[in-house]
């Protein structure tokens, strides 16, 4: 079985390959094709993968190419983890937004819109090529903003594109561990959009244990989200929000922390990864050791400004091991082998949330089998959550309209309608700022 990884020179590709090395049995991936526009990054990541596979019998063979069509032909699965504009583009997204006093995070607020406007045209081109060159392939999208990009691709691939994210998985596992339960045996009632969802229940042996957690201040304050949001606020919500909702619930504090930080997250990662690729390319370098060390630093500093604002302290050791590669592998196994499972995924709504239309991509538990991912019916969201979900989905639709029609007017509208951008004048300045620094936005007229 052939897996093509788009963004194959990306830093997190070894996580995916590491998961594949541990997979055995019929229907496993035997061939991995890495595609990237940067041949140097491809070479560096290929060296890391070779060291990973050195002591593994019958490891999936790896090849690399800068030719997209070549990479896609004959693929059974396509894993998309591209970054249009690179980390330098992310740093510019943050800088332009913060200069206007609004959030520049890569998936939330102004930064997420800018990233989406750059990424959607590229993702749509990929979707069209997949439909032409590998019509039977399943596309697993991890490219951010994951929900928006998955929806853009679904207009050409239908339900054969499925978005994944490790945030809901990590949240559910943390809650289960705090409750003393096996995360693999818990049913997580999670619903929303990507990076905009809430856990409203966690059932163990058919019993919802979330009320027990919410009623116990010591227990509730003992894990990441309790520290990040505060016990009182979680009890007021009656739910546990995805960590990215900290940008909404504590927006002023988050913007201030990002403005005062020595470097933005994008700038930090751009510098860190430049060092990584340089080190791996040095004669005699132990590529896997360099990658392990860099990954540990990356994970430990994740959302550090938010945790500092909330006084949440350092991340727990259990939260430093990633997780999206496990979701990707479980999804591929379920489809390829008809190993039925339940995963929280980004899929078309299909009537699951009545407030959104059929084609709106949402993030919910899904039953997965050989025919793909099928969203599970969920109870309606409370009004405060419904308002946010509908507002952000309206913004996503304006981003899609802007990308499709090359409309600068729609781009301004997308920024202006976002709950974290509170001024039409600021929206206009953001579009001016982003189009001046990003060649990838030159299409907006």
Provide structural commentary.
With 445 residues, the protein is of the alpha/beta class. It contains 20 helices and 13 strands. Strands 3-2-1-4-5-6 form a 6-stranded parallel sheet, with helices on both faces. Strands 7, 8, 9 and 10 form a 4-stranded antiparallel sheet that branches. Strands 11-12-13 form a 3-stranded antiparallel sheet. Helix 4 packs antiparallel against helix 20. The model has no long low-confidence stretch (mean pLDDT 94).
Question: How is the secondary structure organized here?
Answer:
Elements: E1 2-6, H1 13-21, E2 31-35, H2 39-53, E3 61-65, H3 68-72, E4 77-80, H4 86-99, H5 109-133, E5 138-141, H6 146-157, E6 161-163, H7 167-178, E7 186-193, E8 196-204, E9 207-208, H8 210-214, H9 217-220, H10 224-229, H11 231-237, E10 240-241, H12 246-249, H13 251-260, H14 265-280, H15 287-300, H16 304-310, H17 324-337, E11 341-348, E12 361-369, E13 372-375, H18 383-405, H19 408-417, H20 424-437
Write a brief structural summary.
By secondary structure, the protein is α/β, with parallel strands linked by helices.
